[in-house]
Structure formats: C-alpha cells, structure tokens
Amino acid sequence: MDTKKPNRLLIVIIIAAVLLIAGVAAAIVIIMGAETDVVKGTHSHSAPEPVTGAKVEAKDGFVQVAESDTYRLYYYEPQFSIRLENKKTGAVLDSTVSDEKDDGKNNASWTAYMKSGIVINAIIGTLNTYQVDMNTVKNEISTWYIDNGIYAKIHFKGNYYFELGVEVKLEGDDLIVRIPDESIKENKENTYISTVSLFPFLGYTYLDEQNGYMLVPDGNGALIYLDNKEGRYTTGFSGLIYGIDDGMTNHTSVSTIWEHYETVTEANKVIAPVFGMTHLDDKLGYLGIVESGDERCSVEVVPNGVMVDYNRCFAKFLLRDVYVQPLNQSNSGTVPAVEKDRQHSDLTVRYCLLSDDAANYSGMANAYRRYLLDSGKLVQRDTGYRTRVDFLGTEREAFLMGTTAVTMTTTGQASDILAELRGLGVNNVLSVFKGWQNGGLYDVPVSSFGADGSIGGNSGIKNFVKTQADLGSKVYLYDDALMVNADTHSTTYNVMKMVNKRTFKNETHGQVYDMFYYLMPGRSLTDLAHLTKDLNGAGIGNIALSGITETLFSYSSKGNFYSRTDTMDIYEDAVSAAGEMCGVVTETPNAFLWKYSEAMLDMPLSSSDYLYLDREIPFLSMVFKGIVPTYSEYVNFEANKQENFLRMVEAGVYPSFYITAEDSSKLIYTNSSDLYSLEYASYRDTIAEYDSALRAVAEKVGTACITKHEILDSGLVKVTYDNGVTIYVNYTGSAQSDGDLTVDALSYTVKAGE
Questions:
Q1: What is the torsion angle, in degrees rounded to the nearest 10, for the CA atoms of residue 578, residue 579, residue 584 and residue 589?
Q2: CA distances from residue 79 to 152, 286, 498 in whole angstroms, order as listed
Q3: What is the pLDDT of residue 634?
Q4: What's the pLDDT at 753?
Q5: What is the DSSP track for 388-455?
Q6: pLDDT score at 493
Q7: CA torsion through residues 245, 251, 252, 255, sign
Q8: pLDDT < 70 regions, the chain
Q9: For helices 411-423 and 457-470, what crossing angle results, to 10°?
Q10: What pLDDT was estimated at residue 266?
C-alpha cells in the first residue's frame, strides 16, 4: 500500500459519520427550541421543517410556525408580518395590509407603514420625525424557531443602525409578543429610537367591511364601531397608560373662572393597559394586554378615515423622548433636548385570542378577569355591599397673617350622622374621613397621626373609628401621599424636579393655597410608612390613599435621571408596605396597584365623551364585579342623578356620597370652595333610598361575576351573572320589552336565576 495516498474509503466513512452526528445534533437543537436558523438573510423566503415537525403550509408567502388547539400562527419575514387563523372557521387576523386590500389611496410613507409588522419612530439630533419600517428602510432579518413560535432579530441599516429582537409565540390561545430589553441597540451616534409600535395593524378592517368594534380604555370603557366613519374624524384615541408624564410635560393649568373655579372637566386617565378588536361577522377577535413596558406605553385606537381608511388598534411603546430644556433660571430661553437614556424594560403584549361566542367585549372582560386572577394582579376581596359615606372634617381660610380652621364635621357629628342613617336602614357603611389631620385637608404631606383638635383630636378619631368598627362599618383616614403644600411644609429637598431639572409646580388657583408640588417618590414611601405605622399603633388600621395611586412621572435628582419605571416600583413598594400595616382602599388606582386594594374608589361610570366614541360600556366594572368592590364618583356632583343611578345598577358599582354636618357655604373662602353641595341634611333621604335599592340588587347578585353584557335591539341593556341572575336596565323614555318581560321607562328589573 502506498502510505502517501489517503485512504478514500476511510475518509468517506469519517465524513459520513460527521454528517450523521451533525444532523442528529441539529435535530436535537431544533427539538429543544434553541436558536436554530429557520430563515436567515435579507428578505429570504426559504424555511426548513418547523420545530413541531408539522407540515409547513405557505399562504401568500406566509409559512406556518406555530399551532394551538384553536389557532395557527403564520409568519411572513420580509414585512415581519403574522397571520392568525382560526382552525375551525378559517377566519384570520392579519397584522399587515395585503396587496389585495390596499386601496391605493395612500402615499408611500403610509403604504410602507401599513405593510410593516413593526414601525419605529426615530430621533435624529433632536428631530423626532423619522419613520423606520420594514419596507422603506434597508434591513436584515434572521429568524429562529423557539417553542411554539419564532424569535426574529432585526437589523435596520441606512441612517439608523438599530437592532432589536422580537419573540412571537402561542401559549394556549394567547399570542405573546415580546421585545427583550437587552436586544434593543442604538448603534449610531445622535440617532435614537423614540417609539416602537408592535403589529399596529393586527386585526385591521377596511371601512365597514366587517361588523364589529374596538375597545377603548377610556373611563370605565368604550367602543368604536367598525362602520364607515365617512372621514368625519381627524384623530383617534391616543392615551398614555397611567396618564401623562408630568416629569416630561409642562403642566397645563386647568381652565378657571374668576381664577378659582374649574370650568373644564379633565379627561379620564388610562388606568388599565388594555385594548381590543372584535370581528362580529367572523366571530374572531382579541384583547390586548400590555404586560411589561406599560408604564411608558400608549394605547392607540384609530377609526377609519383618520389618515387612512383602516380601523386599527395597538400598543406604542415610548423608549425615548424630546423635552424642552430651559437655558436659564428665568426660563427666558429654551432648547430641545433628548433624554440621556432610553426606557429599560421588556416590551410585551399578550393578545388573548377570542372566537365564537367569546368574540365580543364580554369575552374580553372575562378574559381579562381570568388573566388578572391567574397572574396574581387582582386578589379576591370581600365584596359585601356597603354604601360609601365620606366626611370632610376641617378646612382652612385666610385670617390676618395666617389661616384659621373652618370645621365642617367633627367626629361627634359624624357619629350622629351614621347613627341616624342606621335608623333609616343604612348599615355597615364604608367611610373615608378627609381633612382629619392637623392643619386641615390641604396640610400635606401627612407623616404621622395627629388629628386636628377642632374635629375632636386624636381621641375623637380613635373613638369614632373603633365605635363604627364595632357597629360593622369601616372608617378609613384619607391621605394624599403625592402632594406637598409649600405654605405648610418645607420644600427644600423633597419636591420632584422634572427631567429638565426644573421643579414641577401644580397650580390650583385655590382661595388659600394656590401652589402645590409633588413629593419625591422616596419621600412618599417614607412618609407613608411612618403614617401607617402610627395608625396601626393607634388602633385605627385603615387608610384611603390618593395621589400616588393615579400619578406616574419621570424625574431628576442630584444630576441623575429616573424613569416612570423607577417611580412605579417605589409606589408599588409603598402601597404594598402600607397594606401590611393597614387596610388599604385606593382612589382610581393604576393597574399595578389593584392587588393591594380592598376597594377601588371613584370609578368613572362614563367616558371622556370624545366624538369618535360610539358606545360607553362598563368594561372595568365587568372585570372587577364579584372580585373587588368598586365605588362611584360622588353622587352629589352628578348632573343627571337618575341616569347615574341606573349606571350603578348596570355596572354593579356601589354609591358614594361626600357630606358635611355644616352648610357648604362655610367653604366659600377655602380651597374647597368648588364643593357647593355637601350638607348632610340635603342628602339624608337620597342616601337611604340609594342604599335600600342598591343593597337589594346586591343581595340578589351576591358574590357572582358578570359574564355577559348586551345591548338589545329594544334599547334594553341586559347584564347576566354567573349565578343566573339577570338585570335589565331601560335608559329610554318609554317601557321596553324582552319576551314576556317589560321594563318601565328609566327603570330596571332584576330577574332571579333559574
């Protein structure tokens, strides 16, 4: 044998063995769901067998990448587009506008937007005007299979050099879309990502091609129908979840008359990170839940005719923004500036997919309730009926060089009022006592237990709370843990500064105190910890929180910048710790605080009344009913009390009254001068009537949850509970019927379960 020549047979055997081992290894990697190439390269259409080993079916360039019992998930890489198909009916939800459904009316920028599964707004320098999409900006995309889904890594080129990874997968009948924080990169100097819109056209419809609606998280909830709007509107709903960021946006003073009385009601804040779409004809839809990144994300719900003739709703995450930086202390000159660092959190949207009889807003509410309970973001509470009767203790009016007390309700008077109400059948109330602290309602912040002597002092409050507890009622002491009054407290070190390092000011145009500031989040936490420890030690043990429950902001401190994520984390720690010391109820709480609240106060029963909203629905009430008690805004200040009462019956919300023992006219020279109707004598009979009627409804409903809410052709509203109880509400001016059942005008009927 010639030893200088290779053994060809041996080489062939070795090569075959290596290939066999490599093939097995690749198969193992695929089965384990590791990052194995499915599609790699710029706009490549090729794809090997998927992880499940199921047959890949191509539809309009889409390939199947995942499957559940009910749905198939398809993927089209060039546009980073997905399609969800109901396996039973064949109905689909598309994330980009197909060539077939492109009406050809739109400019190149909008056409590219509609056909991109992800759209970025970019900042170059300080100009926040640049659109980055999959069609007009050069990009490379690589895609790998993961467990029942895909992971795509997108590199944008040209003027941007952005990178990000997107995970898309099915979990049962939920679609999860996530951009990991660590995958987001901005690789070019002075070029930044401002916003990221995930699948902004998922479930889109064209004009009125489909009956259905979109869910708007405004107030308690509202719908925009998918009918042809005929170009009537120039804007849709755009709401930053948890309200505007006062650390980034200059505060706008409210409109007033004579500098003291508000003339414009503020729009509702978005307290729930949700949106949704339903195709009624196809019996297909989804509820979108922003699971992470919600603290800096807006919900966009846009009807057809606004820029393009397509209905769409989506989450738009804000990573970085441009703000106004003053050049000097006098604010005589300003320049635009870009945030030094972007938002750091995963960006996640969970789409709860709905089909058949669940593809409606009732199905959305049921899905959201299940999600909240399963994830621990909502906790089962005692939902037994209680009318809410709040008291105003003491206020302040100007006097010589200082202020003097204006006492509206002492603890003794409050006891007498509740005793009289018990005689009228109003038992087991929930009561929030406001203005109990030394210095009155607006002497904030409060960091220790010290009751004003004019209402009975510490002993008066303690006796009042204990006596009412023995009688079955719950009394909570009110605390605005956000605000600081510069006239009564030092603001040298503890007030919030905006990201431009200017102190945030909240002008109220009050008669006595006209300027308030926000506490630094850390100080709110410290003050609240001290106060709840004091209350616990005094045997009171109940607190009603406001301010930090409905406000979220970015801020600066000692040269460092802190995001809304930082504030959210501190506020959650503060309320959680308060709950370990006291029973806690919260005023219009943001979603991340729901699990800490024994009851939710000031639940709006209506929307902000935007022109493009077609129907108000009690969406959040449907979610909470049977899980946690919710209370209306004050009945005193409702213009149409009859309609408001019927809304409470419909939504399962309990009534709230704000009262004083003394006449409201005594408040004319205080910061509460706008509270024109509080005197108990004027509301005694109304409180008793509301309590009797709503308590009777609550006794029939019990601890049941709302499973279905319908608007019947007759105009009746029908609410069905999971124990079989059905409530019919008639808002019309004439009697209406549903089968053998007739409901009088402006009335309601409760039908027991069969």
A1: 80
A2: 12, 22, 39
A3: 97
A4: 77
A5: EEEEE-EEEEEETTEEEEEE---HHHHHHHHHHHHHTT--S-EEEEES-BTT-TTS----S--B-GGG
A6: 78
A7: positive
A8: 1-57, 250-266, 330-332, 754
A9: 20
A10: 67
Specify the residue for token string 């009289």: 420
Rounded to whole angstroms, what are the CA distances from 365 to 215, 288, 352, 596, 744? 10, 11, 11, 20, 29
Q: CA 352 to CA 82: how far, in whole Å?
A: 15
Task: Name every residue whose Cβ is closer than 8 Å to that of residue 265 and which is 6 or more positions away in sequence.
Answer: none
- Rounded to whole angstroms, the Cα distance separating 179 from 152 reads 10
Q: How far apart are CA 384 and CA 704, in angstroms?
A: 11
Specify the length of the chain in residues.
754
Cα–Cα distance for residue pair 607/221, rounded to 1 Å? 7
pLDDT of residue 538: 96
Of 640, 604, 591, nearest to 266 by C-alpha is: 604
Element (H, E) at 138: none
Please give the backbone phi and psi of residue 24, each rounded to the nearest 5 degrees, phi first: -65, -45
| Rounded-to-integer distance, Cα 201 and Cα 96, Å | 6
* Element at 329 (helix H, strand E): none
- Quick one: tokens of 264? 């414009």
If one counts every other C-beta atom within 10 angstroms of the C-beta of residue 731, the result is 17
Q: How far apart are CA 31 and CA 53, in angstroms?
A: 9
Amino acid at 701: V
Q: Helix 680-701 to helix 641-651 angle, to the nearest 10 degrees?
A: 30
pLDDT score of 333: 81
* pTM across the whole model: 0.91
Predicted local distance difference test score (pLDDT) of residue 479: 98
Whether the Cβ atoms of residue 241 and residue 295 lie closer than 8 Å to each other: yes
pLDDT at 754: 67
Assign 200 to helix, strand or coil. Answer: coil
Give 331-339's long-range contacts (Cβ < 8 A, gap of 24+).
Answer: 331/502, 336/126, 337/126, 337/500, 338/123, 338/126, 338/192, 339/499, 339/561
Q: Following DSSP, what letter does each residue of 545-604 receive, concatenated?
A: EESTTT----EEETTEEE-HHHHHHHHHHHHHHHHHHSEEEEES--GGGGGG-SSEEEE-
